[in-house]
Write a structure and sequence with these properties.
- This protein has 667 residues and is an alpha/beta fold.
- The strands form seven sheets. Strands 1-2-3-7-8-9-10-13 form an eight-stranded parallel β-barrel. The protein has a five-stranded antiparallel β-sheet with strand order 14-15-16-20-18.
- The N and C termini lie close together (9 Å).
- It binds 1-deoxynojirimycin (NOJ) and calcium ion (CA).
- 1-deoxynojirimycin (NOJ) binds next to loops.
Length: 667
């Protein structure tokens, strides 16, 4: 395994280095031609996801459900919705994902069920006060808990609905067909532990805890973040620690930073939580061309326990929520990002990333760079890696849940079904039409957003500082330029972004790093050494830099001491030449970049592949002449001939002593 492997098999803190990809089974790929994506289809696309470089898949709810809240209205916690496949399919998917080193996060929706769930059907018929009835929260009047806000305010007028069978009102924080479970009933706790055991027992790596702030209700409060809710989470976590070490809880708590950090507890509640407030501020900062909103919200974010991690995101399956901003900020966001009232829903904006950013490639790269650089692990929403469009003429939040665009074939290559059968229509907006905007096209074009995203992910994965490093803002004279340093052990990465549509210059105070040399991560190009005095950077519109601040430099050849690759080999050493993707994709380019004889170091290597392997016999040992195709981010590609041979430990040491850059990898 290389020193840069994203997730080492047994690391319990794996989520700190994770790059998470969020997807809906129904939207990804249809394996049985019925117009709805399914597990069989998803399995066929796992190679695509592995190749993209993501390390973790987060699946939206796939359980039996009337689908009136797209599966967040669960009717059976122990099965798979028949549209998506069977439990057997799910198990096979899990196995196939794990085979590719992809971890799987699923949903634990425990605040509420569907009104079609057997528990609710039983409860409404059970005697008032009986344990069965008490699975849910009932009242004779709709007056209790008046301080609780209404979340789906475009659809619901109250958190209480009348049930004519029970002859009582039931409590619901979301749709009226989603009654809230009653956490004052110990039987509800038992049910939840049981379903946790079911999914974690099967090998699921993490659970997203949906709507977690709303578990309990208490009069005189807003019924969010109550101490009882935290006590229950600690109990759930203790159970996981005892039975499933190394698994992860993810809190979906759309709250201000101080309330959100409470879901980490003292490191004894959730391992990760979404950073909701930072998300809209990234869009604000970009539009205002001012770093203040980002700095301000991160300054307001309290430190978190060591083993915990924020999850950063730009978009997801819901509306771009504007709950965690002030009224003025919300007005501003709606004015600049959702002029058309149809693009708005509840308190937010139902648009995808690319349309929000006017399909501006520079803005897309900049926002993704922030996503990949801010403290935490990034979550990518399916389709955003190719810049998919949306359709807000569809109902609810469906406009951002349309079929993944694979190719220009029928139904965007997503399904062979009759187009009228698709669960949702594909995007045909002329600007984002699937005939042009699809994976196949972007795969073929190394300048596409897909290739850019892949490269950004691979680069991020080479540096632990992104997932684990500390965060320090760098003072600078220009408010349109945001700069900060992420530092972990001997890695220090300076991130500089220009939020403005014009070229900018900034004087950065990098005195703490005087003597270091900034090395641009993609190109490995070296910039001027940092001095005590202000460091000058100039940035083109929406430009971004990832710069490693290197303390020491090699005397003459511009190499950096990145260390050597370690690769695992089964059997013959030469199998790395033919079978190890990592040897060609990572070890070779890293070696070439530093090899003294290697051509133009100013050009950055995009990709190296072994075109041919020619055995050369001599002295009883087999050596090989590799024919390597090297492509660059710009300009024509090269063919390079490189002889390689195997050296045992002693000989290797001797060679290294004589010529420190003579080795490519340690086997
Ligand atoms: C949060 C989910 O993200 C959203 O899609 C859903 O509607 C609500 N929880 C209610 O379950
Ligand atoms: Ca299907």
């Amino acid at each position: 395994m290389s020193q840069n492997a994203a997730v080492s098999a047994g690391d319990p803190l794996w989520y700190k280095d994770a790059v998470i990809y969020q997807l809906h089974i129904k939207s990804f790929f249809d394996g049985n031609d019925d117009g709805i994506g399914d597990f069989r289809g998803l399995i066929q696309k796992l190679d695509y996801l592995e190749n993209l470089g993501v390390t973790t898949l987060w699946l939206l709810p796939f359980y039996p459900s009337p689908l009136r809240d797209d599966g967040y209205d669960i009717a059976d916690y122990y099965n798979v919705h028949p549209d998506y496949g069977t439990m057997r399919d799910f198990r096979r998917f899990l196995q196939e994902a794990h085979k590719r080193n992809l971890r799987v996060v699923t949903e634990l929706v425990i605040n509420h069920t569907s009104d079609q769930h057997a528990w609710f059907q039983r409860a409404r018929r059970a005697k008032a006060g009986s344990p069965e009835r008490d699975y849910y929260v009932w009242s004779d009047t709709p007056d209790k808990y008046q301080e609780a806000r209404i979340i789906f305010q475009d659809f619901e007028g109250s958190n209480w609905s009348w049930d004519p069978v029970a002859n009582a009102y039931f409590w619901h924080r979301f749709y009226s067909h989603q009654p809230d479970l009653n956490f004052d009933n110990p039987r509800v706790h038992e049910e939840i532990i049981r379903m946790l055991d079911f999914w974690m027992g099967m090998g699921v790596d993490g659970l997203r805890l949906d709507a977690i702030p709303y578990l309990y209700e208490r009069e005189g409060t807003n019924c969010e973040n109550l101490p009882e809710t935290h006590a229950f989470l600690k109990k759930l976590r203790a159970h996981v620690d005892a039975h499933y070490p190394g698994r992860m809880f993810l809190a979906e708590a759309n709250q201000w930073p101080e309330d959100a950090v409470a879901y980490f507890g003292d490191g004894d509640e959730c391992h990760t939580a979404f950073h909701f407030p930072v998300m809209p501020r990234l869009y604000m900062a970009l539009r205002m061309e001012d770093r203040f909103p980002i700095i301000d919200i991160l300054d307001q974010t309290p430190p978190i326990p060591d083993p915990c991690q924020w999850l950063m995101f730009l978009r997801n399956h819901d509306e771009l929520t504007l709950e965690m901003v002030t009224d003025e900020e919300r007005d501003y966001m709606r004015r600049v990002y959702a002029e058309d009232p149809r693009a708005r829903i509840n308190l937010g904006i139902r648009r995808r990333l690319a349309p929000l950013l006017e399909n501006n490639r520079k803005k897309l790269e900049l926002m993704n760079t922030l996503l990949f650089s801010l403290p935490g692990s990034p979550v990518i929403y399916y389709g955003d890696e190719i810049g998919m469009g949306d359709n807000y003429y569809l109902g609810d939040r469906d406009g951002v849940r349309t079929p993944m665009q694979w190719s220009l074939d029928r139904n965007a290559g997503f399904s062979y079904a009759n187009p009228q059968k698709l669960y949702l229509p594909v995007i045909i907006d002329p600007e984002y039409h699937y005939e042009v905007l699809n994976v196949e096209n972007q795969q073929k074009n190394v300048s596409s957003l897909l290739w850019w995203t892949r490269q950004a992910i691979a680069t991020r994965k080479r540096y632990k500082a992104f997932g684990r490093g500390s965060m320090k803002f760098v003072a600078g004279d220009n408010a349109q330029v945001l700069a900060f340093v992420r530092e972990h052990e001997d890695e220090r990465i300076l991130v500089v972004v220009n939020l403005s549509k014009y070229t900018q210059m900034a004087l950065l105070d990098l005195a703490d790093y005087a003597g270091s040399t900034p090395v641009e991560l993609y190109s490995q190009n070296r910039l001027l050494e940092v001095k005590e005095s202000s460091y000058v950077v100039t940035l083109s519109p929406y430009a971004y830099y990832w710069l490693a601040l290197e303390r020491e430099t090699h005397e003459d050849d511009g190499t950096t001491d990145e260390g050597m690759y370690e690769l695992e080999v089964q059997g013959e050493w030469s199998s790395v030449l033919t079978e190890s993707h990592e040897f060609a994709a990572q070890a070779l380019p890293a070696y070439l970049r530093t090899a003294r004889w290697f051509g133009d170091k100013r050009r950055s290597i995009q990709h190296a592949s072994i075109a041919d392997t020619l055995p050369v016999e001599g002295g009883g040992e087999t050596a090989y002449l590799l024919v390597i195709e090297v492509s660059y981010r710009e300009g024509a590609s090269d063919t390079v001939l490189l002889p390689v041979a195997y050296a045992g430990a002693d000989k290797a040491q001797r060679l290294l002593d004589e010529s420190p850059r003579s080795a490519i990898a340690r086997l």
